Amino acid sequence: MRLSRHYAPLLAALALALVTALPSDAVPHARVGSENPAVPQPFGAECRTTVTGSHAVAYCHNPYVDTDRVRLHIECDRWWDIDSDGAPVGAGPAETVRLTGRCWKEIRSVWVSHQK
Hints:
By secondary structure, this protein is mainly beta. It contains 1 helix and 7 strands. Strand 3 and strand 4 form a beta hairpin. It starts with 6 loop residues before the first helix and ends with a strand.
């Protein structure tokens, strides 16, 4: 069966009407990058730890604008000695905080964690 030449323009107009009647979110759009992409802000206090016998001390200095919540973690060497995780302490902008902790006997390792 062949369509007559009279129906071809009507069919084209109907197809065009259907395409333009679609909702705007159904038609794909090209992604346009923003003019100012988000630049990650530097974060994190610089910490120095020292261990003397069974005592550990950490000094953390925060040179950045955001407050860094730092925690001292101590792993004790003896199996029966309890490891400790200190409470978080807020180191504000341009602030230095001191964190301390200890084991009953020797200390195996000490580290500081950071949280925004």
